[in-house]
Amino acid sequence: MAQTANRPRRAAARGALLRLATCAVLIALYVVLNRFVSISLPGAKIGFSVICPMLAAMVCGPLSGALVYAAGDFISAMLFPFGPFHPGFTVTAALMGLTWGILCHPRPFGLYENRCMTLEGKKNKVYAILLASAATVVNCLVLGLLVNTEWVAQLYGSKTYRGWFLYRLPEYAVMVPVNIVLASVFMPICAVLRKKGFMRYSRV
To answer: What pLDDT is attached to residue 7?
Structure first.
């Protein structure tokens, strides 16, 4: 009886350790991708660090996505600064991670079941891609372009908010389809992880 009663506790402890280890690996990978791996185009810079919080959110949930995005952004800014640090970017990054998890996790916060994220059946695949597209639009256009541009304008007074908005618009016009493609590619990978039992320990 005692062993049976302790099983839920062991499963919860194993789940917490698994999420922590996963987040730690993804944070380290985020820092590397964010600072050293990108493609420069005329008027735009395409980065791939978004893959890390995207995976954390899809597999482990909204809070893990927020942790990876915020911690990765903060550590990158501290170790490899591109300019002055502004905490607004870290807050926005956390919100982006939450957005990925709320829209693209099968059971966000354990409150309801998002059946679209099981990717079983053609219709569910279409719905899943639509949700990933919605998360991309919110993150890129609302949080990335509208909100983060305010932090840029506060740090650098060479342009007005409108000036920085127009300057950054082409980059986000490129990032929206790129992020949708990345999400569409990694959703099946997350589905495989869930089928292998990874999701048993990932509820938040």
So the answer is: 61
- The predicted model scores a pTM of 0.83
Question: What is the mean pLDDT of the segment spanning 8-23?
Answer: 75
Q: Which residues pair with 39 in a beta bridge?
A: 46
Cα separation of 96 and 164, whole Å? 21
> Which residue, among 66, 105, 72, has the nearest Cα to 202 in the 3D structure?
105
d(CA 155, CA 28): 26
Domain ranges within the chain, ordered by starting residue: 2-201
Instruction: Give the architecture (CATH level 2) of 2-201.
Output: Orthogonal Bundle (1.10)
Helices 62-79 & 2-36 angle (0-180, nearest 10): 40
**Dihedral sign (CA 83, 89, 91, 97):** negative
β-bridge partners, 38: 47
